[in-house]
Design brief:
This protein is α+β, with helices and mostly antiparallel strands. It has one domain. About 20% of the residues lie in helices and about 15% in strands. It has 4 helices and 11 strands, in the order H-E-E-H-H-E-E-E-E-E-E-E-E-E-H. A 5-stranded mixed sheet has the order 9-5-6-10-11. A hairpin with a 2-residue loop joins strand 7 and strand 8. It starts with 7 loop residues before the first helix and ends in an 11-residue tail after the last helix.
Length: about 325
């Protein structure tokens, strides 16, 4: 008796059909994954914006973007208690009177108490990182002399937008944007920013933005170099300000600074979103077509790569007096 069976041709046809179906499904699955990662990233920024508002409600003003004199730190340690992470910066684990990178073994004068900051700030916190960003988790390890003073900390994909730097004029045809170029979160020495000073409107003013992948250097979607912060080495590469606790985290947008050479990012790199993740440039993400930003009213929006530079200027300033473009 002859048993029914597939012929070789039939089997090959079935395999070919399965391969075609897989080929059709994979892009759809990838799109779903990308959309989920983008939504998770937006949720992180939403939580940061709400935490800034809760801080403002408690103190009457927003946190400083950074402190450049002792105790040096970014906005992040100040917001952690409003992100259900109060234990991270409690007295047992973090000394708010000391620089963010300080450790017990550091060769430098301190307040005479154990300084655990350097251990705490190396903690990876999901709220500070976008799931679309590769090479997670990452650590900033800024070379110092002696090495006990290296500034080591777990990184973040978000930064405080301090406003617009006058250097952006070079990419605006030589014209410095008029009006007040300051953003909402500013350096501690300038004094506190109250919500009433955001005269451009909270829905029109960016609070936090994406600058993902630091301190590895990316330009136009390509990895230029893994972080190497010793300027004497030929493979030096640094997208400065990667650590969540560092006072280097925030910046004014519109600058072309090549950290390793001390020179400028070439003009062949356009001043646009997702062109460079180096400190001072614009916004950078691993999302297709743009980057996320949290506005001062608590909303999170997707800034398109093709957004006009004048629009980005208007969005980054708190009291520039611009007529906000619909872009």
């Amino acid at each position: 008796m002859r048993r029914p069976a597939f012929t070789l041709i039939e089997l090959l046809v079935v395999i070919a059909i399965i391969a075609i179906l897989i080929g059709l499904l994979l892009p759809a699955v990838q799109k779903v994954r990308d959309a989920a990662a983008r939504m998770s990233c937006q949720n992180n920024l939403k939580q940061l914006a709400l935490a800034a508002h809760n801080y403002e409600s408690a103190y009457g003003y927003f946190p400083a973007s950074k402190r450049t004199t002792r105790p040096q730190r970014s906005w992040a340690p100040d917001l952690l208690p409003y992100l259900e992470q109060a234990n991270v910066v409690s007295g047992a684990y973090y000394n708010l009177d000391e620089n963010w990178w300080r450790t017990i073994g550091e060769v430098a004068p301190n307040v005479g108490l154990p300084v655990p900051n350097g251990t705490t700030t190396q903690m990876y916190l999901k709220i500070f990182n976008c799931p679309s960003t590769p090479n997670q988790p990452r650590v900033q390890d800024k070379f110092e002399t002696p090495p006990e003073q290296n500034k080591v900390g777990s990184t973040t994909d978000y930064f405080a937008v301090e406003g617009v730097n006058a250097a952006i004029a070079a990419d605006l045809g030589g014209v410095v944007p008029p009006g007040d170029l300051r953003g909402v979160l500013r350096v501690f020495t300038e004094g506190p920013t109250r919500i009433t000073t955001v005269s451009d409107g909270t829905s029109n003013t960016v609070l936090f933005g994406e600058d993902a992948g630091r301190e590895d250097v990316y330009r136009q979607g390509r990895l230029v170099g893994r972080a190497q912060t010793n300027k004497s080495l030929p493979n030096c590469a640094r997208a400065r300000g990667g650590a969540w606790a560092t006072n280097d985290n925030p910046y004014e947008i519109g600058q072309r600074i090549d950290w390793c050479s001390g020179g400028s990012i070439p003009t062949s790199i356009p001043m646009k979103i997702n062109a460079s993740n180096e400190w001072g440039f614009l916004y950078y993400s691993f999302h297709s077509g743009g980057a996320n930003a949290a506005f001062t009213d608590g909303s999170v929006r997707f800034l398109r790569e093709g957004a006009q530079l004048t629009t980005l200027v208007a969005q980054a300033t708190r009291a520039g007096g611009e007529v906000f473009p619909d872009d």
